[in-house]
Design a protein that fits this description.
There is one protein chain. The chain has one domain (about 5-345): TIM Barrel (Alpha-Beta Barrel). A 6-stranded parallel β-sheet has the order 2-3-4-5-6-7. Strands 8-1-9 form a 3-stranded parallel β-sheet, covered by helices on one side. The chain is an alpha/beta fold. The longest helix is centred in the N-terminal third of the chain and has 19 residues, at about 30-50. α3 (about 30-50) crosses α10 and α5 packs parallel to α6 (about 145-155). The chain is built from 15 helices and 9 strands. β6, α9 and β7 (about 230-235) form a beta-alpha-beta unit. The termini are far apart. Bound molecules: S-adenosyl-L-homocysteine (SAH). S-adenosyl-L-homocysteine binds near residues 161 and 237.
Length: about 350
Amino acid sequence: MNNKELIDLLEKTRHLDRQQWIALLESYTDEDRAYAAHKAAQTAVKVFGKEIFIRGIVEFSNVCRNDCYYCGIRKSNANCERYRLTKEQILDCCDAGYEYGFRTFVLQSGEDKSFTTDKLCDIVGSIKKAHPDCAVTLSVGELEYEDYKRLFDAGADRYLLRHETANPEHYRKLHPSDMSWQRRMDCLKQLKEIGYQTGCGMMVGAPYQTVEDIADDLMFVERFKPEMIGMGPFIPHKDTPFKDKPAGSYELTLFLISLCRLMLPDCLIPATTALGTIRPDGREHGVMAGANVIMPNLSPMNVRKKYLLYDGKICTGDESAQCRACLERRMESIGYKVIITRGDHKSYDKDSSLR
Ligand code: SAH
């Protein structure tokens, strides 16, 4: 089978076997990529129309107990100026975001144990009380089942926890030995079981990543059936062990967005900030390759430059209102419209009003 036939097969059956994934990833051309992007964008339009969901991210702490080799806020980075937002600051960000039309707030941070589950439950509950028509997404890393459950019961709707890699050996090359691939996988399973709309994902072009690893990532995505998939290119950060590693491929990131869209048509797939960082119009191209979500920053201006997972991150100098307007323009320039909605995954849409 040639690559176009493989892409047709994926569109039709939503499945490729390992050998087929590997063959496709080893030999795709720009033309194959354009072919997949066209089909993926058509698929996204069938599900979502020409409408883009937005989520406001509040990066509420860059304190982290982990030491991931790729990440700029890893605990060993002494050059990282640490900060924590107060509950009031977080709520202020959400209030401002509500005015700009955000109906999902994503709370993201390093693994900062000073934000206990009690504290986080209080914050989530307060956001939901102030804005009952909004969804809250958490992205705060690995917790115990009990904690995930309590946060869910406090009102959190979604959880982003990238699996980072489906290959445990690859995982060990990206993380110190006190971090466990199995634990991360267990967390993902628990999140789904509890009832979160759950997001997995990986960095494209992470150091030591092979074509086989990506095939395994795609097969994991097929099995796990996440409601969301976050994928962006790896971008080196100057104060990490991976500072000299090359950035991930822009083209491959777009191709993988298209392949994931064809595999899981209903999935919520963002055109990530990292994609917009390696190319000025990366997020537009992400949407044209099948993404349907954009996640601009709602963090206070004075902390934005401190939440740097990688070098060169965009939008660290803009006010939230500017970001919002800029994205609206960008989406309009390619014929899409940013809409004011929670933007739940289809299978959660009817339940959400009952919770
Ligand atoms: N601490 C939380 C959330 C913050 S990290 C957690 O572990 O889930 C969010 C994501 O940023 C990570 O999952 C990783 O995939 C991505 N990331 C980290 N460093 C990066 C880098 N140098 N380039 C691109 N993406 C990176």
